[in-house]
TrEMBL record:
One of its GO terms (cellular component) is plasma membrane. Disulfide bonds join C36-C39. The gene is dsbB. The keyword Cell membrane applies. It comes from Zooshikella ganghwensis. This is Disulfide bond formation protein B. It is a multi-pass membrane protein. Gene3D superfamilies: DsbB-like. Its main location: membrane. GO terms for molecular function: electron transfer activity; protein-disulfide reductase activity.
Length: 169
């Protein structure tokens, strides 16, 4: 008895991404927790994984196609692991080593050239070191890291698993 077919698994991964974004929007609008630059990057990464998984589910390609979708998912999830790890690391710093806080993102967009804006988005600021919420000892970025590791493992399993040959693929 092998793994289920890839199509429903990719759709389940899409639904997971939709749930994560729904949770992030609840934290922002329901609980009033404003996202920092690294949080926004993590949201973009989750949305990207969700779009890739939805496309894989709708497209329902053959074996090579699923491997391509899985490869892209692994690449994006790996990026998410790096970004979430950076934020977890920032949150673990002693207060005297935390970088300075930055102005809100809309001000940064107006002030900075795009190269500098990308650097700020991917390296984070003092805002990213603030722990606003925890569950079972993990902050929001900690749970994001767990999610990205899960997506990465899913993608690697999909990338390397043996699939039965389809008659018309």
């Amino acid at each position: 008895m092998g793994l289920p077919q890839s199509r429903p698994l990719f759709f389940l991964a899409f639904l997971t991404c939709a749930g994560l974004i729904g949770g992030a929007l609840f934290f922002q609008h329901g609980l009033g927790l404003e996202p920092c630059p690294l949080c926004i990057v993590q949201r973009i990464i989750v949305i990207t994984i969700g779009v890739i998984c939805l496309l894989a589910s709708i497209h329902n390609p053959g074996n090579v196609g699923y491997r391509i979708y899985a490869g892209f998912t692994a690449l994006i999830a790996g990026t998410g692991i790096g970004v979430a790890s950076r934020q977890v690391w920032l949150q673990s710093l002693p207060p005297d080593q935390v970088p300075e806080c930055a102005p809100p993102l809309d001000v940064l967009v107006d002030m900075l050239p795009w190269q500098e804006l990308l650097r700020v988005l991917f390296t984070g600021t003092g805002d990213c070191a603030e722990v606003q919420w925890t569950f079972l000892g993990l902050s929001i970025p900690g749970w994001s890291l767990v999610s990205f590791i899960g997506f990465f493992c899913f993608a690697m399993i999909e990338l390397f698993r043996q699939r039965p040959k389809r008659m018309f693929s």
